[in-house]
Amino acid sequence: MKSYRIREEMNGISEPPGKTWFWELEAAVVDADRCIQCGTCVAACPSNSIGIDAETDLPELVKMCTGCSLCWDFCPRGGLRYEALWPPSTPPLGRAEDATVVRTDPSDTYWKITGGPPAEGLGAVIEQFALRAVSRPEGAQDGGVVSAVLIAALAAGEIDGALVTRPSDDPDEPWKGVAHLATTTAEISEAAGSYYNQTMALAGLDLSGYDLPPRPRIAVVGTPCEIQGIRAMQSRRWSTGVHRVDAVVLTIALLCTKSFDYRGLMLQLLATDRAVDLARVSKVDVIKGRMIVEYRDGEVAVDEPIKNFHGAALKGCDECADFVGRGADLSVGSVGSMDGWSSVLVRTERGKKALDSARGRLDFRDLDDPEALAKLDRLDKRIAFDSLKRAFDADAPLFIDYADHAALYAESDRRPVLTER
Ligand SMILES: Cc1cc2nc3c(=O)[nH]c(=O)nc-3n(C[C@H](O)[C@H](O)[C@H](O)COP(=O)(O)OP(=O)(O)OC[C@H]3O[C@@H](n4cnc5c(N)ncnc54)[C@H](O)[C@@H]3O)c2cc1C
Ligand code: SF4
Ligand code: SF4
């Protein structure tokens, strides 16, 4: 479909004020190579006008855009501006003391989006552990904790399904993760492990093809940007399309410093350039600054510095400052705990309840190295800050904020200006 930047180009009719069209999102995010394939725009569109381009795995317009602005408003690389949603009682940005303002009002949208009151460092954390599933699913990435928590929630009747990522059925797409709603224990177990590509996950909230109760309760496992999208959409009422944002009752964020373009990483850099036989691969891991690919027989196919693969990383990830998934009920990753264990941050009462349900299925210990999490978080923020600063210096048309970015910039007229923390 031909894209238009403004309505006049399309049919000569002048544009009503206050509207933002899909093609503006397309120009500022998708065409600018900043899209992080979270699927928020697809889920947000009330007229179901946004689909996924089968060639590029990027959002595309499949029906008429009504200019409702919602795809732009909720896009983590577009108009998602947490500070604009904060209540008037919040002091204006740009003052040094903003970084330490404590917001305690639960109706504060910041509170809604982050799932808890603002906190420095790793965000709101009620409890933190290193955990390992007693019965670890085959293929689990670390301690198998995410799968164990989902299986327990399903068994306890707390959820009807979980939006997870499983391998594509397409033989031309080996080791490509695709979003999938798992409704059985077997499906959750089969989806264990990490896929280093984004899946447009929130497009998977179209539950119409599933046999679910009329008021389904769904858990979502996602990268932090996907959880940001859900929190933002849940914090504002609007009439949704087929996507059941309202059904999400539990969110689990996977700690994340970057994700990759599937074709660039798997097909080009691994299969073509390094002759990796993807059919034999049992695990792909990005850990301690290295990319490690293992075959099922134990042979290590690749063990190289991650910087050798940066060419296939999503450019929009450079702008991301949310390594630890501040918006989630639970955040889970490998950094900070021993091999074979997962680091878990419990952020909300919902997260605590889900973990309590899974207690009998988990081994507990203290986090081995909490400072490792904080260190990587600081590095992630620094990269994001530098990336934003470069964009502003180049006068790029960016309007970006993050839940934890308040102190990074102050507003000046209509243009964001960065301030050092
Ligand atoms: C792109 C990416 C980058 C990551 N980067 C880091 C990092 O820098 N540091 C760190 O400590 N941890 C990182 N992780 C998290 C880590 O790899 C593990 O997922 C986490 O420790 C949970 O392990 P587990 O054994 O408890 O989960 P498991 O029981 O193995 O379950 C993992 C769950 O994640 C789902 N999943 C897999 N891939 C994706 C995906 N692409 N998008 C959404 N859901 C998915 C699976 O379907 C499954 O439900 C990253 C994960 C991903 C997907
Ligand atoms: S970043 Fe997410 S919301 Fe924004 S255009 Fe890409 S898929 Fe849509
Ligand atoms: S680095 Fe950030 S933007 Fe990129 S996939 Fe991870 S959470 Fe999303």
Walkthrough of the structure:
With 421 residues, the protein is α+β, with helices and mostly antiparallel strands. The protein has 2 domains: 7-96 and 399-418, Alpha-Beta Plaits (2-Layer Sandwich), CATH 3.30.70; 111-377, no CATH class. The chain is 25% helix and 19% strand. It has 12 helices and 15 strands. It has helices at 7-11, 22-30, 40-44, 70-74, 82-85, 109-114, 145-155, 185-190, 224-234, 262-272, 349-357, 370-393; strands at 50-52, 59-61, 127-133, 161-167, 177-182, 218-222, 248-254, 281-287, 290-295, 300-305, 330-333, 342-346, 362-365, 409-412, 415-418. The strands form 4 sheets. An 8-stranded mixed β-sheet has the order 5-4-6-7-11-12-3-13. The chain has a 3-stranded antiparallel β-sheet with strand order 8-9-10, with no helix packed on it. It is globular and about 65 Å long. It starts with 6 loop residues before the first helix and ends with a strand. Residues 82-103, 108-112 and 397-421 have low confidence and may be disordered. Bound molecules: flavin-adenine dinucleotide (FAD) and iron/sulfur cluster (2 copies).
